[in-house]
Design a protein that fits this description.
By secondary structure, the protein is of the alpha+beta class. Among the domains are: about 5-40 and about 200-345, Multidrug efflux transporter AcrB transmembrane domain (Multidrug efflux transporter AcrB transmembrane fold, Up-down Bundle); about 70-170, ACT domain (Alpha-Beta Plaits), CATH 3.30.70.260; about 395-510, Alpha-Beta Plaits (2-Layer Sandwich). It has helices at about 10-15, 20-35, 55-65, 80-90, 145-155, 165-200, 205-220, 230-245, 245-260, 265-295, 300-340, 350-355, 360-375, 395-410, 425-435, 445-450, 460-465, 485-500, 510-545, 550-570, 580-610, 615-645, 650-680, 680-685, 690-720, and strands at about 40, 70-75, 95-100, 125, 130-135, 160-165, 230, 380-385, 410-420, 440-445, 470-480, 505-510, 575. The strands form 4 sheets. Strands 2, 3, 4, 5 and 6 form a 5-stranded antiparallel sheet that branches. A 4-stranded antiparallel sheet has the order 10-11-9-12, sandwiched between helices. Helix 7 runs antiparallel to helix 9. It is elongated and about 105 Å long.
């Protein structure tokens, strides 16, 4: 007779209500599918700056007073000055275009070519090519701006090339929509292949993918409640959720299979498996959740956006595994049994023996390389701003940028927002800015206003672009990239000049000033996030094992793998997106520390439960751990590299590269180092440290009590 459980029995409740749970998840999936297209996606990193950042305050003020104009740069090849002028006029007439800056503002291009100084106009016309800087009436991501870009593209045809934030954002949106489906399709196919090789039934991979697919749909749909998510979150969370949380469903099914093999009836085996999974899966997922939650503490709030969505994804994965998966196992039980096959994986006995044999050389090499790797990973060249997330090799924007830059160099727009108090002061400021050696052009209303004509005589449609009642706007183009040491120095010098004329309520805005503030903000974020993630994981592991030594040993291989992963770009001379650098540090620690926890648990079982010798325990631990770590690590590695190879968006591709490389490095270092480290601290693993501490305190108290009794006895005898 079945022993009755006391109180509410959750596993029994799940099994008894399996069909109702299926219907509930089906309904939630339908609702999430409907909500998914309604989720707004943001492509502008400046939106995540803290309110205290100077450029953020300037952007908010400019948007309030003037709007926040989108920008683009257009080059037309194989044209003479007259044809270029005709194209420029046609672009100006397009709805959504505010102004087009070209050499005709300073040079009469209709005069005889003998009187035109081509050296003076070389920034805008040379070798039969004309380049124009365009400012739109609306922002980079506005629908009106996108329509204007399409009209410009049709106008300039095959002879034209286009770059700029507005063009880049349009390209990002189009590529994201196209690539995300491709990335998920390839990821599902590759994960199915990995699961087929590492499971023992043909139907198991299908079950796992259904469960994870439901969790992903629920997570993506509920992003609607976040209001707006970053394009980075929209693209990488689904793949990472699939890769990181697949272990939970594998654990539940394997637990169910073990109980079935012991002779239990299907539903009883499932109840026992769910009961076991609640304890093990939730404990295991806590390290991953901690790694993601700490991202929400970043002042640069893209971390909050990404961290919250990733954490939510893990919670949904846990919910689908613990509630929906048992119902699906009941439904698919006959297929699971009929499709059983022998494992394709070897026993890994020889591999485990070899790893244990070379343990000391591995530890010595790791100890020697630890400090150089730590130093190298901090010496990377980083990218911070919007320009660093744009289209990568293989896209039209990337090719156009190379073409324009090779002929005309760079053109970087910045805007000064100053109090509208004096036209004389504004004109003097414009002159001082124009005299800077790297300045291409400066446009202000006082420069454009004809001598002796009051501002009031001009129509508001013209003056409103550059002046409001309280503020003036000055448009500048420099011969620098948006993000480079030269650009940063130029922005600081320009800001200094502006402040010398307008000490109060003046701002410099644009890609470069925003990037400077992004850099300051997220460099500070890194230290906070790194410390919090290490402390969080340490506490979770400490509570799980009730030990102070085990968390330190468990984290050594993972931290070394993170340093190695981040040192590679420095050694290869590559630039790294700093946002990816922070995010991957947390993801790699949170997601792969489970490999160390699993290995440690297996070693403790071998020593304490099965009474194996240290060497045998280490080899047995590797044999038992390798299949699980290989499955989980391979999935995360494959998903990372799919992002890297498929996405043409540099921020997403770079993030994927770091994730994929970090996953296999964590696998290798955990399997190569941890068993040897566990053997070294073996005495600490034989008995629970908490129990030893309690016993020490108990003995200490007993000793004090004995001494007190003895003193009392001696005092009584003396008095007698």
């Amino acid at each position: 007779m079945e022993k009755k459980r006391k109180g509410f029995d959750l596993p029994d409740f799940i099994i008894r209500n399996a069909k109702k749970i299926e219907k509930l998840f089906f309904a939630l999936c339908i609702i999430s599918f409907i909500m998914m297209p309604m989720v707004k996606v943001n492509y502008d990193l400046t939106k995540y700056l803290p309110e205290s950042a100077p450029s953020k305050a300037g952007l908010d003020l400019m948007e309030e007073e003037f709007g926040y104009p989108g920008t683009a740069r257009v080059m037309v090849d194989d044209v003479d000055l007259y044809e270029a002028k005709r194209i420029k006029n046609a672009i100006e007439d397009i709805d959504g275009v505010d102004m087009v800056l070209w050499c005709d503002t300073t040079t009469d291009i209709f005069q005889s070519s003998d009187f035109i100084d081509y050296d003076e106009i070389k920034d805008y016309y040379r070798d039969g090519a004309a380049v124009m800087d365009i400012t739109f009436t609306e922002g980079d991501t506005d629908k009106k701006t996108k329509e204007a870009i399409e009209e410009i593209s049709d106008l300039i045809g095959d002879k034209g090339y286009m770059v700029g934030m507005a063009v880049q954002n349009k390209s990002l949106e189009e590529n994201v929509a196209k690539e995300l489906n491709m990335i998920m399709l390839i990821a599902v196919i590759m994960i199915y292949i990995i699961l087929t090789l590492t499971t023992t039934a043909w139907a198991e991979p299908v079950l796992f993918l259904i469960v994870m697919g439901v969790a992903i749909v629920l997570n993506k749909g509920t992003n609607l409640f976040l209001g707006e998510i970053s394009f980075l979150t929209d693209n990488v969370v689904a793949v990472l959720q699939l890769a990181v949380s697949m272990d939970y469903s594998i654990f539940l099914l394997h637990s169910y299979t073990r109980y079935k093999q012991k002779g239990m009836e299907m539903k009883e085996a499932l109840k026992s498996a769910v009961d076991e999974a609640f304890k093990s899966i939730i404990a295991s997922s806590m390290t991953t959740i901690v790694g993601f939650v700490v991202l929400t503490f970043m002042r640069f709030s893209i971390g909050f956006d990404l961290g919250l969505s990733l954490t939510k994804g893990i919670v949904f994965s846990l919910a689908t595994v613990l509630f929906l998966m048992p119902a699906l196992i009941i439904r698919m039980a006959p297929r699971l049994e009929k499709s059983e096959h022998k494992s394709f994986l070897p026993s890994f006995f020889r591999t485990s023996g070899f790893i244990y044999k070379i343990r000391m050389p591995v530890l010595i090499v790791a100890a020697v390389l630890a400090v150089p790797l730590y130093v190298a990973q901090g010496m990377n060249s980083f990218l911070f701003g919007n320009a660093s997330v744009g289209a990568g090799e293989g896209t039209q924007v990337y090719a156009d940028d190379l073409k324009i830059s090779s002929k005309f160099g760079r053109s970087n727009m910045m805007l000064a927002i100053v109090p509208n108090t004096s036209n004389v002061t504004e004109k003097e400021l414009s002159k001082a800015l124009s005299d800077l050696p790297y300045m291409k052009s400066v446009t202000s209303l006082t420069d454009e206003l004809p001598e002796g004509i009051p501002e009031e005589f001009l129509p508001e449609s013209i003056t409103g672009l550059m002046h409001t009642e309280d503020y003036s706007r000055i448009l500048m183009y420099t011969r620098t990239k948006e993000e480079s040491p030269t650009a940063f120095e130029a922005a600081e010098e320009i800001e200094g000049i502006i402040r010398s004329y307008y000490p109060h309520d003046s701002y410099l805005v644009g890609g470069t000033p925003s990037t400077i503030d992004i850099k300051k903000t997220i460099v500070e974020d890194y230290n906070l996030v790194n410390i919090l993630s290490l402390l969080g994981v340490f506490v979770v592991v400490m509570l799980s094992f009730k030990s102070l030594a085990i968390p330190i040993v468990v984290m050594i291989p993972i931290e070394l793998a993170i340093w190695l992963n981040m040192a590679v770009p420095y050694l290869m001379g590559e630039e790294v997106n700093y946002i990816g650098y922070i995010i991957v540090s947390c993801i790699q620690l949170g997601a792969t520390v489970d490999y160390s926890i699993l290995t440690t648990s297996n070693y403790i079982d071998a020593r304490n439960k099965y009474n194996m010798e240290k060497s045998d325990a280490a080899i047995w631990t590797l044999m038992r751990s390798i299949p699980s770590i290989l499955t989980s690590g391979s999935i995360l590695t494959i998903c990372g590299y799919i992002l890297y190879f498929v996405s043409t968006i540099s921020a997403i591709g770079g993030l994927g590269h770091l994730i994929g490389r970090g996953a296999w490095m964590s696998m290798l270092l955990v399997l190569g180092m941890l068993p040897a480290l566990l053997v070294m601290i073996d005495p600490l693993l034989q008995r629970n440290e908490t129990e030893r501490l309690r016993e020490f305190i108990k003995n200490r108290r007993s000793g004090i009590l004995r001494r007190k009794k003895q003193n009392v006895k001696q005092g009584s005898e003396k008095n007698s």
